[in-house]
Design goal:
Elements: H1 2-6, H2 8-26, H3 33-42, H4 44-58, H5 66-84, H6 88-111, H7 117-136, H8 146-152, E1 155-156, E2 159-160, H9 161-179, H10 181-191, H11 193-198, H12 203-229, H13 240-250, H14 262-281, H15 287-323
Antiparallel strand pairs: 1-2
Helix pairs in contact: 2-14, 4-9, 4-10, 4-12, 4-13, 4-14, 5-6, 5-7, 5-12, 6-12, 8-12, 9-10, 10-12, 13-14, 13-15, 14-15
Amino acid sequence: MKQLLRSKEAGILLIIVLLSLLITLKNPVFLTSSNLLDILKNNTVPGIVAMGMLLVIITGGIDVSVGAMTAAVTVIIGKYMVHAGGNLLTVFLLGCGSGAILGAINGFFVAKLDIPPIVVTLGTMSIINGGMLYYTGGSWITNIPKWFIDFGRIKLLGIPVQILFLVGAAVLTHWVLRYTLIGRGVFAVGGNPIAAVRAGFHKDKILLFLYSYLGFMVGLAAVVHTSIMRQVDPNAFFSFEMTVIAAVVLGGANVLGGEGSVFGTILGVMMLAVIQNGLILAWIPTYWQQIVVGAIILLAVSLDVMQNRRRQDQLTRIDVAGEAPFGG
């Protein structure tokens, strides 16, 4: 119990509660059930993508192309539904499959060619954004079939279906991290890549899987996003990747690798959602949301770096103290 209270997740949860109370004092609408469900529903898309980003960040990597990939998949499934019709199953298969392929491309360059993830994903982000602009001309895709719109309106026990997909993505990611060899390999590679390889983990295969898994989550999020918006705007994901990365880092994942949890990431998503909703209810201009997200990323990364340096200093002092008796 004491260990739980001292964890990063406990601190994040406490901050969320305090922020919620402060916002409620400003605007009592915040804590109504309808508003809370709306907050959850509107943040299912970054939440689902954050599940995939979590695994990548635990290995010490990053993917700044998720916004471009999500936009691309929404265009793909939007065009498919408008021109080919299809059904719900084929839309999900097409969305998740195309997302996984885009993620696997990133994974190939990172794992097989050993190119830094930030370089690879910056490149693919630019390529995808340019390709989507050329293909769509920036035009929206409307006339989404009624059967898909009706799917987006489904509620189970009063809970929007989109929230259930977020729950499913979180459960699947927790299972991968906790109960599979790949999950153990994720933490091993993030903690010490050389030691992980010596222990028998296939670093290349793990990285290829992770980026493909992130792409799969991007595809799922794209379908969920389209079910909420009922149309496709290829420009809707500007700076989306920053929100996703901020949620994961804010949830306790260490950008240097080796640390992170599904529960913490969910809390990170919720904290950003509470902040953004609070700014809206307080009639604060939306551009402040980007400023707040950027500040949160800088703060969280700075804390991680300082904690890592403190650990290194402690290890150094221990090593020096251990060697002292043999000196002189």
